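Revision sheet: structure tokens.
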Amino acid sequence: MPRRSHIARPIWKGALSFGLVTIPIGLYSAVERKSELSFHLLHEKDKSRIDYKRFCAEEGVEVPWSEIVKGYEYEKGQYVVMADEEFEKARVPASETIEITDFVPADAIDFMFFDQPYYVAPGGKGATKAYALLRDALEETKRVGIGTLVMRQRQHLVAVEPAGDLLSVTTMRWKSEIRSSHDFDVPGHGEGYVKKEMSLALQLVDTLAADWEPEKYRDTYTEVLRNAIEQKIETGHVEAPAAPEKCPHVVNLVKALEESLKKPRKELARAESREGRKAASGRQRTTRRRAAA
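Predicted:
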């Protein structure tokens, strides 16, 4: 039996189509920002919020919204002004359908093209069969559906692919947005190193080889910062965390690779685990102090 989404409102409702098959769907954000910390700019003297005003650089006066227009600088100091109706003429007509035009190999798309992920849920009982069919067909063929989506008055290139039991839609960057790699002066493949260095590098890669387990990786900066905020709320000051050990700077590449291979992987894991426990215990102490108060 298909699972029902617990999210109340989709951010976009429409249909997903391939060939003559149309699937009613809802689009839901696949990213949560709950862990992000946001800060406000305050006046240090009285802790009042800083307010931003729209000033004319030429006249030095505040400008009301009714007198503000949008201009494109085509030459230094030269602008062409665009009116709202001109933006409307240029706007892509809104479509409520993501039409898949191509099915491409999943491993053929460079990760730099991917931008924002969304979950796709079927938009009703009549959509579940076609939804499951598309998801399983993509999984079986290891292909990704490519199409376009108009959302928030902007056209996006999108990739449709399985994400476990769900389908996902990921907005993509256009080819014109990806900077050419030819802009950089880098050595060619096989240049700049000797065979022994490659052999050692391959050994090191093999030593650190692992399965992809996203839960292993944590936003330690946010964890430490949140702990510091809780400390300051509780005590009025912040204790600096222990500085991480600095990696020794080794000039000789072969020596650096050999020294890396000598360091057991378990030692690195234990060090990471200690740092994680230290941050967590700090949060727990703050929570206990609050509860006691």
